[in-house]
Amino acid sequence: MEWRQQTSVSCADAFSEAQRWIEEVTGKSFGSENFRAALENGVLLCDLINQLKPGIIKRVNRLSTPIAGLDNVSLFLKACGKLGLNDSQLFHPGDLQDLSTRVTLRRDEGTRRLKNVLITIYWLGRKAHLDAFYSGPQLNFKAFEGLLGLALSKVRCSSRLLTAVVLLFSSPH
């Protein structure tokens, strides 16, 4: 299978799993909206993180304006930071913007941006999994292996290398 095909298949698994997890945790459905459209206004994301850590976002803006949506997404990302996610694990607020009306758009730009959102969902799911006080639905991390495979294999490789170096220098000569 060609690399692009593998990537799109693995992303499909991650999209499906992220949607399932968000819907189960929040008790709210994406409805007929696609992944980006369902999360664009930030309400579901705020509801998600408030279920994981009640009260972390005090007030969700439920107006249906682009500014309200951007505000909610920013609140979600700040809350992720409070839970310990690093900036490198967070998507950019613009990653959820509708790009369909743009005249000049690189072919894979929309997919790249949504992958960033998936990566944040993955790391948030890991935080929830490690939280002793959270007993709700869990994210299936295996669904993200195709999306994160290369990054995770690099982490494992560097981890093994670090272990080997530590063992080498800590062993008596």
Automatic annotation (TrEMBL):
Positions of the Calponin-homology (CH) domain: 12-129
One family name in Pfam for this protein: CH
Name this protein carries in UniProt: Calponin-homology (CH) domain-containing protein
SUPFAM superfamilies: Calponin-homology domain, CH-domain
GO BP annotation list: actomyosin structure organization; regulation of cell adhesion; regulation of signaling
GO molecular function: actin binding
Organism placement in taxonomy: Eukaryota, Metazoa, Chordata, Craniata, Vertebrata
